[in-house]
Design brief:
The chain is of the alpha+beta class. Helices cover 51% and strands 14% of the residues.
């Protein structure tokens, strides 16, 4: 049963205060230079205490906490740390400074998150396609994304009162199907939207790698298309940019594969929204889930 939003907010504040104290102790232990220079902690993206900016004359950092709720949602700081180290040479993500469970500390990337309007421009789509192609050309990381396993995990943490006969049938259908055979298995980010793409002097940088893993490149592209609610024309334009950047040679095959993955992406989004609503009680998740509900 979802708690009231007021109670959830109170619990988040208490949790954030405890985590702030824990993070201060971690900095004092592992970052004497930062501690000596002085630092300030500020929560990032709300009151959950899951991410904190560490501001210091010695350099700015980002601390990301591994909460139980985030693990249920599919995040894993150990995997995130390993993948960020894997992509370090490309400089497409932040540099890892410390992984000390349950904390991951990375460099703070100075940049401006893209707006929804900027994200859809031809120039941005061209630059983003080039960034993705470089990412997808890396050797796989060792962490494979298993969608049926993820669906099964989500299923244990949704509000049973919201289930319908059609949803039960859809879940059985998704769990009994075999995912599409990959066109190309690669390291994928799996959470690319305007807020997770920063415009920096060095070019586009990607943040929030907590869902990154090995998967089909077409699954990544389908997630971008559906997650950003692009129409058919926007989808075709983006896929052509990806092909022109050297991501895949056959546009027709790529388009067909993206379309095969779209039902899987839709169900992944539905389950994630439902889990997050159950965890937080925030109505925006229920609203986002509504058009995807069977």
């Amino acid at each position: 049963m979802v708690k009231s939003s007021g109670l959830v907010a109170v619990l988040f504040r208490i949790n954030a205060e405890l985590l702030q104290s824990e993070l201060q102790q971690l900095i004092e232990k592992h970052y004497p230079a930062v501690n000596t220079a002085g630092f300030r902690l500020s929560p990032v993206a709300g009151l959950t205490g899951e991410s904190w900016k560490i501001t210091s004359p010695a350099g700015n950092l980002l601390a990301r906490h591994q909460s139980y709720e985030k693990r249920i949602a599919g995040a894993d700081r150990q995997r995130e740390s390993a993948i960020l180290r894997h992509v370090a040479r490309q400089k497409s993500g932040p540099c890892v400074r410390l992984y000390s469970p349950p904390w991951l500390i990375v460099d703070w990337i100075d940049g401006t998150p893209l707006t929804e309007q900027d994200f859809a421009t031809p120039a941005t789509q061209q630059a983003l396609s080039q960034t993705l192609v470089r990412l997808h050309q890396l050797a796989p990381s060792g962490y494979r994304l298993d969608l049926p396993q993820q669906f099964a995990r989500y299923w244990q943490h949704i509000d049973r009162r919201r289930l319908t006969p059609r949803w039960l049938r859809l879940h059985h259908q998704m769990m009994s199907q075999t995912p599409p055979v990959s066109l190309k298995l690669a390291l994928v980010h799996m959470d690319i939207h305007a807020g997770n793409v920063l415009n920096t002097p060095e070019g586009l940088r990607l943040i929030d790698w907590e869902y990154a893993a090995n998967a089909d490149i077409a699954l990544e592209l389908a997630a971008i298309v559906r997650g950003n609610d692009w129409n058919a024309q926007q989808q075709n334009t983006f896929l052509n940019e990806y092909v022109n950047a050297g991501g895949y040679q056959e546009i027709t095959l790529l388009q067909q594969q993206v379309n095969r993955w779209i039902p899987w992406v839709d169900y992944l989004m539905l389950m994630w929204f439902e889990v997050r609503w159950q965890q937080t009680g925030e109505n925006q998740y229920r609203e986002w889930a509504h058009p995807l509900r069977p």
